[in-house]
Amino acid sequence: MATVVFADLVGSTGIFERLGDETAGRFVTQLTTALSRSFEQHRGRVVKLLGDGLFVVFPEESDAIAACIGIQKRLQETPVYPGGTGKAVQMQMGVESGEVVEIEGDCYGDAVNSAARLADLAGAEQILATGRVREALAPELRGKLRSLGPMFLRGKNEQTEVYRVQWQPERDVDATMMGASMFKATPNARLELTANGQTLRLDPHGPSLTLGRATTATLSINDSRVSRVHATVDWKGGHFILNDQSSFGTWVYMGGGNTPLVLRRTECYLVGNGLITLGCEREAEAAPRVEFTVVA
User: Fold this and answer.
1) pLDDT in tens, the chain (296 residues)
2) Nearest to 127 by CA among 7, 268, 263, 271
3) Residue 106 and residue 217: Cα distance in Å, rounded?
């Protein structure tokens, strides 16, 4: 058994566009080298550098989580600015444990694939892990993980219970609403989606709703960042489920939380109330926004 971490630089494409390939490449190499040393201080072995990220293997789940938290805190306390200006560097991380097969210095296995998918799913400054990782942690570390509910990771046929590591205490209140109690089936609930002055309602067992740029979408949003069929919303197993099918992704902000769940050809439960932005984060100019409320 091993614990796998994928750590990716957020928005690397924008850094290369702003600084140019040579300067950006030098910056990213310096950054990943420094992060490698941080992971190694927690008994991590860097399997490979991935251009704008790292693939690391740890002997224990606690080492992996501690390393990820340490790096996120370091970047928050001592921001790093590409080229000395612009937005500070942010990382997104995924953690999974399981059997790993090593062949000629590289590592393979389901845990490797899952950790990579979790890193893709994570938003800026997020660390996502599975229930398998959570169960292996000591109570002190386990208490930092908040459930995001079961999700289908790309390439997997079964649902994976996904948890977010709460490494910033001030955001703990936002995360509490994402606890396991929010994922109990609610057979009498209805979902309301509001955008551009239009409100749609989905009742349990009602037909699927589609969000997209196409005029035939149930909720049509005319914006170049929105795919023709960007996402669907269905009622499954007592829950409303948002399924991203887009080119650029879907950002989901639960309640008053500031940290989004970023969907890229994956899905999540919609619970309570919140905001969905299509094709970009909510801070983007004129972001396509859809407000949602689950009414019990």
Assistant:
1) 899 999 998 877 778 888 888 888 888 888 899 999 999 999 999 999 887 889 999 999 999 999 999 999 999 998 888 877 778 888 999 999 998 898 888 888 989 999 998 988 887 888 999 999 999 999 988 888 988 777 777 667 677 888 989 887 654 434 433 443 344 555 678 899 999 888 999 988 889 999 999 999 999 999 999 999 999 998 876 778 899 999 899 999 887 777 788 888 877 888 788 999 999 999 999 999 999 998 86
2) 7
3) 44
Q: Of 153, 49, 146, nearest to 96 (Cα)?
A: 153
DSSP, res 10: T
- The C-alpha atoms of residue 187 and residue 123 are separated, in whole angstroms, by 30
- Tell me the residue type at 266: T
% helix, strand, coil for the chain, step of 5: 25, 35, 40
Two structure tokens written together for 158: 């079964």
245: exposed, middle or buried (C-beta count within 10 Å: 0-12, 13-18, 19+)?
Answer: middle
Q: CB neighbours (10 Å) of residue 95? A: 31
Contact 65, 137 (CB under 8 A): yes
Q: What angle do CA 280, 285, 288 make, to 5 degrees?
A: 50
Which tokens hold the place of 22? 């040579």
Pairing of strands 160-165, 127-130: antiparallel
Please name the residues in contact with 167: beta carbons below 8 A apart, sequence gap of 6 or more.
Answer: 68, 69, 72, 73, 127, 144
CA dist., res. 56 & res. 155, Å (int) = 21
